[in-house]
Write a structure and sequence with these properties.
single chain; alpha+beta; Mago nashi protein; eight-stranded antiparallel beta sheet
């Protein structure tokens, strides 16, 4: 009887350990977690782009003529391209939202066609490690022709937080 209980406990512990490993923890060497970008060519170039790095720094690209499109193949190399720190997110607040990324990455992204004129493109994304590669997780994106929205609850929470940060930075 005791031996059976030990075997059952072993299997329960093993399955718990394996399931915990399947939920990907934030990558320790990941240097960029979130981004907001907007670009519009309608009446001249209007470009705004910021990221939140692993230290909670909100970095912007002040070089208006050097538009950055983050390629996840070299995610960490983009950190230094954002040349100014304009805001610092509290470490515990950052960790709270980084912890939501893995579930947001599993969310369904829906697309809806649009017919806007001179709107440009505005998006909020986060980044995660998928197997051995970084992956962009779309939270929301709006453009002249197409809108995208991640339906997961976690993506919505992250999106609300990023929009609030964007308002704080633009009100200063």
């Amino acid at each position: 009887m005791f031996k059976t209980v030990k075997i059952i406990c072993f299997f329960l512990f093993s399955s718990l350990f394996i399931s915990c490993q399947n939920d990907e923890a934030p990558e320790k060497n990941q240097e960029i977690y979130f981004e907001k970008f907007s670009i519009n060519y309608a009446w001249g170039l209007n470009y705004n782009h910021w990221i939140i790095d692993n230290e909670g720094n909100v970095r912007v690209n002040k070089e208006r003529d050097s538009i950055i499109w983050i390629d996840t193949d070299n995610l960490n190399s983009y950190k230094e391209m954002f040349d100014s720190i304009v805001f610092i997110v509290d470490k515990s607040e950052l960790e709270k939202y980084v912890a939501l990324i893995s579930k947001a990455a599993k969310g369904k992204v829906i697309e809806s066609n649009q017919n806007r004129a001179d709107f440009g493109n505005v998006g909020f994304n986060c980044f995660t490690k998928n197997n051995h590669n970084f992956k962009t997780v779309v939270l929301t994106e709006m453009s002249d022709l197409l809108d995208k929205k991640n339906l997961s609850t976690e993506a919505e929470k992250i999106g609300i937080w990023l929009r609030e940060l964007n308002l704080k930075m633009n009100s200063n």
